[in-house]
Fold:
Amino acid sequence: MPHWLVKTEPGEYSIDDLQRDKSTAWTQVRNYQARNYLREMKPGDEVLIYHSNAEPSGIVGVGKVKAAARPDPTQFDKKSDYYDPKATAENPRWFAPELSFGRKFRKPVPLEALKREESLEGLQLLQRGSRLSVMSVSPAHFAAIMKIAG
DNA sequence: GCCAACGTTGGC
DNA sequence: GCCAACGTTGGC
Structure:
Protein backbone atom coordinates (compact mmCIF):
# COMPACT_ATOMS: atom_id res chain seq x y z
CA MET A 1 0.00 0.00 0.00
CA PRO A 2 1.47 3.36 -0.95
CA HIS A 3 2.04 6.12 1.54
CA TRP A 4 2.07 9.82 0.90
CA LEU A 5 3.18 13.17 2.22
CA VAL A 6 1.39 16.45 1.63
CA LYS A 7 2.65 19.92 2.47
CA THR A 8 0.53 22.72 3.77
CA GLU A 9 1.26 26.14 5.17
CA PRO A 10 -0.21 26.20 8.65
CA GLY A 11 -1.21 29.84 8.14
CA GLU A 12 -3.41 28.66 5.29
CA TYR A 13 -4.59 25.29 6.53
CA SER A 14 -2.98 23.50 9.45
CA ILE A 15 -3.32 20.03 10.92
CA ASP A 16 -5.42 21.64 13.66
CA ASP A 17 -7.83 22.82 10.99
CA LEU A 18 -7.96 19.28 9.64
CA GLN A 19 -8.60 17.92 13.12
CA ARG A 20 -11.43 20.40 13.59
CA ASP A 21 -12.91 19.65 10.14
CA LYS A 22 -12.38 15.87 10.52
CA SER A 23 -11.82 15.74 6.75
CA THR A 24 -11.28 18.11 3.87
CA ALA A 25 -10.95 18.17 0.09
CA TRP A 26 -7.25 18.66 -0.64
CA THR A 27 -7.73 21.40 -3.22
CA GLN A 28 -5.57 24.13 -4.80
CA VAL A 29 -2.66 21.94 -5.89
CA ARG A 30 -1.46 23.30 -9.24
CA ASN A 31 1.50 21.20 -10.22
CA TYR A 32 1.23 18.30 -12.61
CA GLN A 33 3.46 15.87 -10.78
CA ALA A 34 1.66 16.57 -7.52
CA ARG A 35 -1.67 16.28 -9.34
CA ASN A 36 -0.69 12.85 -10.64
CA TYR A 37 0.12 11.67 -7.13
CA LEU A 38 -3.20 12.99 -5.86
CA ARG A 39 -4.97 10.91 -8.48
CA GLU A 40 -3.16 7.78 -7.36
CA MET A 41 -4.39 8.09 -3.80
CA LYS A 42 -6.84 5.41 -2.71
CA PRO A 43 -9.17 5.29 0.26
CA GLY A 44 -7.29 4.03 3.29
CA ASP A 45 -3.85 5.23 2.18
CA GLU A 46 -1.94 6.95 4.96
CA VAL A 47 -0.75 10.50 4.44
CA LEU A 48 1.90 12.37 6.39
CA ILE A 49 1.03 16.00 7.00
CA TYR A 50 3.90 18.47 6.63
CA HIS A 51 3.85 22.10 7.70
CA SER A 52 5.93 24.32 5.41
CA ASN A 53 6.90 27.92 6.11
CA ALA A 54 6.33 27.02 9.74
CA GLU A 55 8.19 27.42 12.99
CA PRO A 56 9.65 24.91 12.69
CA SER A 57 8.80 23.30 9.37
CA GLY A 58 8.27 19.58 9.71
CA ILE A 59 5.94 16.62 9.80
CA VAL A 60 3.17 17.22 12.30
CA GLY A 61 0.91 14.21 12.02
CA VAL A 62 -0.82 11.74 9.82
CA GLY A 63 -4.11 11.51 7.99
CA LYS A 64 -5.86 9.09 5.72
CA VAL A 65 -7.34 9.18 2.25
CA LYS A 66 -11.10 9.14 2.73
CA ALA A 67 -12.13 9.37 -0.90
CA ALA A 68 -10.27 9.25 -4.20
CA ALA A 69 -9.65 12.46 -6.11
CA ARG A 70 -12.51 14.29 -7.78
CA PRO A 71 -12.23 17.45 -9.89
CA ASP A 72 -11.02 20.35 -7.75
CA PRO A 73 -13.93 22.83 -7.71
CA THR A 74 -11.62 25.82 -7.23
CA GLN A 75 -10.43 25.48 -10.85
CA PHE A 76 -13.91 26.46 -12.07
CA ASP A 77 -14.38 29.36 -9.66
CA LYS A 78 -13.63 32.61 -11.45
CA LYS A 79 -13.30 34.40 -8.14
CA SER A 80 -10.72 31.95 -6.84
CA ASP A 81 -6.97 32.54 -7.01
CA TYR A 82 -6.87 28.97 -8.24
CA TYR A 83 -9.21 29.51 -11.17
CA ASP A 84 -7.93 27.86 -14.32
CA PRO A 85 -9.49 29.20 -17.53
CA LYS A 86 -8.26 26.16 -19.45
CA ALA A 87 -10.14 23.71 -17.25
CA THR A 88 -13.63 22.60 -18.23
CA ALA A 89 -16.17 20.35 -16.56
CA GLU A 90 -15.65 17.82 -19.38
CA ASN A 91 -11.89 18.12 -19.11
CA PRO A 92 -10.87 19.07 -15.60
CA ARG A 93 -7.17 19.61 -15.05
CA TRP A 94 -6.92 19.55 -11.30
CA PHE A 95 -8.07 17.01 -8.77
CA ALA A 96 -8.56 16.81 -5.04
CA PRO A 97 -8.91 13.73 -2.84
CA GLU A 98 -10.75 13.90 0.46
CA LEU A 99 -8.29 13.56 3.34
CA SER A 100 -9.32 12.80 6.89
CA PHE A 101 -7.55 13.57 10.13
CA GLY A 102 -5.67 10.70 11.69
CA ARG A 103 -3.54 11.89 14.54
CA LYS A 104 -1.32 14.77 15.50
CA PHE A 105 2.15 13.91 16.76
CA ARG A 106 2.81 14.87 20.37
CA LYS A 107 5.85 16.66 19.03
CA PRO A 108 6.32 17.59 15.38
CA VAL A 109 9.29 16.03 13.61
CA PRO A 110 11.19 19.06 12.33
CA LEU A 111 12.88 19.09 8.95
CA GLU A 112 16.21 19.42 10.75
CA ALA A 113 15.64 16.08 12.50
CA LEU A 114 14.53 14.40 9.29
CA LYS A 115 17.76 15.47 7.61
CA ARG A 116 19.81 13.88 10.37
CA GLU A 117 18.17 10.46 9.94
CA GLU A 118 20.21 8.04 7.91
CA SER A 119 17.15 5.83 7.55
CA LEU A 120 15.44 8.60 5.58
CA GLU A 121 18.05 8.86 2.88
CA GLY A 122 16.33 9.21 -0.48
CA LEU A 123 13.13 10.65 0.93
CA GLN A 124 11.84 12.95 -1.77
CA LEU A 125 11.15 15.72 0.71
CA LEU A 126 14.86 15.91 1.51
CA GLN A 127 16.10 16.05 -2.04
CA ARG A 128 17.85 19.20 -3.10
CA GLY A 129 15.51 21.78 -4.49
CA SER A 130 12.48 19.59 -3.96
CA ARG A 131 9.38 21.76 -3.97
CA LEU A 132 6.72 19.20 -4.65
CA SER A 133 3.73 19.65 -2.38
CA VAL A 134 2.52 16.07 -2.77
CA MET A 135 4.83 13.09 -2.89
CA SER A 136 4.93 9.38 -2.30
CA VAL A 137 6.76 7.88 0.67
CA SER A 138 8.11 4.34 0.71
CA PRO A 139 6.80 1.98 3.40
CA ALA A 140 10.27 1.87 4.98
CA HIS A 141 10.52 5.65 5.14
CA PHE A 142 6.98 5.90 6.46
CA ALA A 143 7.75 3.40 9.21
CA ALA A 144 10.97 5.22 10.09
CA ILE A 145 9.13 8.53 10.42
CA MET A 146 6.44 6.99 12.60
CA LYS A 147 9.15 5.54 14.80
CA ILE A 148 10.83 8.93 15.18
CA ALA A 149 7.49 10.53 15.96
CA GLY A 150 6.91 7.92 18.64
C1' DG B 1 11.16 22.98 -29.90
C1' DC B 2 14.47 26.25 -27.78
C1' DC B 3 15.31 29.19 -24.20
C1' DA B 4 15.10 33.77 -21.79
C1' DA B 5 12.23 35.93 -18.72
C1' DC B 6 9.31 35.61 -15.20
C1' DG B 7 6.79 33.54 -11.25
C1' DT B 8 6.67 30.43 -7.26
C1' DT B 9 8.22 27.65 -3.41
C1' DG B 10 10.05 27.33 0.82
C1' DG B 11 14.25 27.10 3.83
C1' DC B 12 16.97 30.18 6.10
C1' DG C 1 13.39 39.63 3.22
C1' DC C 2 16.74 36.96 0.50
C1' DC C 3 17.59 33.86 -2.90
C1' DA C 4 18.43 29.08 -4.96
C1' DA C 5 16.05 25.94 -7.45
C1' DC C 6 12.40 24.87 -10.19
C1' DG C 7 8.26 25.31 -13.19
C1' DT C 8 5.78 27.90 -16.67
C1' DT C 9 5.08 31.05 -20.39
C1' DG C 10 5.54 32.85 -24.74
C1' DG C 11 8.33 34.87 -28.60
C1' DC C 12 10.76 33.22 -32.21
Residues 3 and 139 of chain A are 7 Å apart (CA to CA).
